[in-house]
Amino acid sequence: MQIRPILAALRRHRLATLLIGLEIALACAVLCNACFLIANRVQDIHVQSGVDEASLASLKINGYEDSQSVDINARVTASLRAIPGVQSVSVLNSIPFGERRGTAGVATDAEGKHFGGVIELYLGGPGSAEALGLHVVAGRALQAGDYQPFSGVFPSSASILMTRELAEHLWPGADPLGKSIWMDKWRYQVVGVIDHLVVPDPGMRGDAAKGWSVFVPGQPGPMLSGNYLIKAASADIQRVLRDAREIITKAVPDAVLDQQGTQTVSDLRETFFQQDRVMTGMLVGVIVALLMVTALGIVGLASFWVQQRRKQIGIRRAIGATRQDILSYFQTENFLIVTGGIALGMVMAFGLNLVLMKFYELPRLPLFYLPVGAVVLWALGQLAVLGPALRAAAVPPVVATRSV
């Protein structure tokens, strides 16, 4: 199949060719970026938390004075531990996929000259690290003596566990054990490295910062109360949480149970990513609608050209062109139009990605999305033109010549 006759024919239909090319370019730009957004959303939805989600629940109460916190903690933990099936109850300020209550900027030096970034501090009482299921991969686990009373928002000094991601970010290629991070004058020394612990709001701070977490031990008190971590067997956790809701209103009638903050960790994940799932569905709908419109445009243009070229098709058939020759002509013509649209669409895809990076803090579009989008559009173009091309190839020479 010679390309020059096809290009000459397209030059005689510049406007129609340009419109279809622009439609394909727009489809390419939107398709690549929408697939990238979907992939990011799906990755966020399936993020690993680093905790034993199936066996954990969070219970939150408020509405009491700070002076009551010690008594409240004692009554709540005693009541929850009495529930059949409960394996442990501990106090923890934050939980993955729940409210964030320990976000802070840290430095790697006492003077604050080397800013390390914004991290999440999980402040927990005795038993909370074990209940979460944190896996220490280097150094040591926390010991009973590490849990000290404190009077500020956080302890002024403590031995902490740090995630491997955060340690590599703060001290690339170096051993983090024994090193310290600083929040103003508060110093925390790393005694153990844990495999992973996601921040409460993964996806909100970018992929790199999802695991920038530390676990800070402290004794429950005025600044560590009202938020409780319940551990039970995965088969019992829903029933245990139902019992906990009923018991807690009797155990601490002077406090208010926060229903939104009282959920299993699995339910917290489900609620946290609800908007992401809705957005993913909307993006899939946009892609399907856009591809359908593009396919209909190709079908319409090809059908119009087949009708317009019946005389030429008949003449070609009369002088020896086979059905395969006619079919190949229209498929090659479509391939050239789609290829031109894809070339422009790749430039538009990067332009659209730059806009998304500026206003929505998305990462740069990986290059491999471009060939994927190109293959999809090439396949779509060939499928869309197949029907009109087959009708053109079926035109008998005698019928075409009688229309002269």
Key descriptive features of the protein:
404 residues, 12 strands, ABC3_permease_C, membrane, 17% strand, 5-stranded antiparallel sheet, 50% helix, 12 helices, single chain, 7-stranded mixed sheet, 2 domains, alpha+beta
Describe this structure in words.
Strands 3, 4, 5, 6, 7, 8 and 9 form a seven-stranded mixed sheet that branches. Helix 10 runs antiparallel to helix 11. The chain has two domains: 171 residues, no CATH class; 191 residues, no CATH class. Strand 7 and strand 8 form a beta hairpin. The protein is built from twelve helices and twelve strands. By secondary structure, the chain is of the alpha+beta class.
Q: Can you give me a brief rundown of this structure?
A:
By secondary structure, this protein is an alpha+beta fold. The protein contains twelve helices and twelve strands.
Show the helix and strand layout:
Layout: H1 3-11, H2 14-45, E1 56-62, H3 69-81, E2 86-91, E3 103-107, E4 115-124, H4 128-132, E5 136-139, E6 157-163, H5 164-170, E7 180-183, E8 186-194, E9 213-217, E10 227-232, H6 237-251, E11 256-257, E12 263-264, H7 265-272, H8 274-308, H9 310-318, H10 323-360, H11 369-393, H12 397-402
Parallel strand pairs: 4-9, 6-8
Antiparallel strand pairs: 1-10, 1-11, 1-12, 2-10, 3-4, 5-8, 6-9, 7-8
Helix pairs in contact: 1-10, 2-8, 2-10, 2-11, 3-6, 8-11, 10-11
Membrane topology: Multi-pass membrane protein
Subcellular location: Cell membrane
Family: Belongs to the ABC-4 integral membrane protein family.
